[in-house]
Amino acid sequence: MTAIFDGSDRAIDRDALSAVKPGLIGTFQPGPSGHSLEVALVLLPEAFPQTSHLQRG
Length: 57
Known about the structure:
It contains one helix and two strands, in the order αββ. It is mainly beta.
């Protein structure tokens, strides 16, 4: 699953997103029917100047 947080989703807390530091965030949960692995890569907007047309959140 891939998600891009560009500020257009009002349900996402922008203050919480701005407090997230760049890096790799992940959770691993073993379960009875298998394992769950969720990973998010957080990047600085300045690293991608060509995406300046995106709305910042």
